[in-house]
């Protein structure tokens, strides 16, 4: 079969786009479109290794790890390094699962119009069939997530009530081990709350208003924060009340099982 470089790149671009979407779903993060496209393009260009002589299994594994690292860095950012490491693991695992499925398909069924060589899959199929098959693969990955990844650990979910200026709002919060955000002057831990909820209790700008620097998957930035009169955190058979925290309004919506990310040090220091 003749392998065309342009078809190869387009096919793998679509496949990697869906694989990165699945990785982001497993990581529970929101990535911007241009980063998603950049990561998919890196993976698509990496598929050109199919034109090399057979490189062997160990080289394929090493190459896949390095390619997954490049894709994860492009799609999710390189800072902080802990998040990059987690993104690398998930991206490599999802890519490895997909490659394993394609290898099994090529060996067991040997479908016409498909080549699996040097760890790269090539489909000589129509655009419609490509879209349908890659969508089916994405749906399979989502099913895999639901069956084996499970829901958020309920032991890490808490009920939060934020009180400020005589107003109160309640929501679910996740004690996120990857969240160590602090207000830079006081060192007080920060709870990142969905913007629509934070704005319900945010007082007018006063001495307690802060601009809090932060790093996200899309780069460095800042969040608007304020010190509440009190927060109450309930869960795990106990209740924590404190005012030594800051509430920051998220730049992206936080919805689903929880609407806020809690710095776990708030929970730990209450022991």
Automatic annotation (TrEMBL):
**Which residue positions are annotated as catalytic?**
176
InterPro entries reported in the protein's UniProt record: SpoIIGA
| Ranges in a coiled coil | none
Mitochondrion in keyword set? no
A GO CC term assigned to this protein in UniProt: plasma membrane
Q: What does this protein do?
A: Probable aspartic protease that is responsible for the proteolytic cleavage of the RNA polymerase sigma E factor (SigE/spoIIGB) to yield the active peptide in the mother cell during sporulation. Responds to a signal from the forespore that is triggered by the extracellular signal protein SpoIIR.
Q: What is this protein called?
A: Sporulation sigma-E factor-processing peptidase
Whose protein is this, by species? Anaerotruncus massiliensis (ex Liu et al. 2021)
């Amino acid at each position: 079969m003749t392998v065309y470089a342009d078809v190869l790149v387009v096919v793998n671009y679509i496949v990697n786009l869906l694989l990165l979407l699945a990785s982001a779903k497993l990581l529970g993060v929101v990535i911007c479109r241009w980063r998603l496209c950049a990561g998919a393009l890196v993976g698509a260009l990496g598929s050109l290794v199919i034109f090399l002589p057979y490189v062997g299994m160990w080289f394929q594994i090493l190459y896949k790890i390095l390619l997954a690292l490049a894709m994860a860095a492009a799609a999710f950012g390189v800072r902080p390094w802990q998040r990059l490491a987690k993104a690398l693991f998930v991206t490599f695992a999802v890519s490895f699962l997909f490659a394993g499925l394609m290898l099994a398909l090529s060996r067991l069924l040997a479908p016409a119009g498909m080549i699996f060589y040097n760890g790269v899959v090539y489909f000589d199929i129509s655009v419609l069939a490509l879209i349908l098959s890659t969508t089916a693969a994405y749906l399979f990955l989502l099913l895999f997530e639901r069956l084996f990844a499970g829901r958020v650990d309920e032991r890490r979910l808490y009920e939060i009530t934020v009180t400020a200026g005589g107003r109160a709002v309640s929501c679910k919060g996740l004690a996120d081990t990857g969240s160590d955000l602090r207000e830079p002057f006081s060192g007080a831990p920060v709870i990142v709350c969905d913007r629509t909820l934070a704005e319900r209790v945010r007082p007018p700008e006063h001495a307690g208003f802060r601009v809090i620097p932060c790093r996200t998957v899309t780069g460095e930035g800042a969040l608007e924060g304020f010190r509440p009169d009190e927060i109450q955190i309930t869960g795990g058979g106990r209740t924590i009340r404190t005012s030594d925290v800051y509430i920051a309004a998220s730049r992206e919506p936080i919805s689903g099982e929880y609407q806020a990310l809690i710095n776990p040090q708030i929970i730990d220091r209450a022991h």
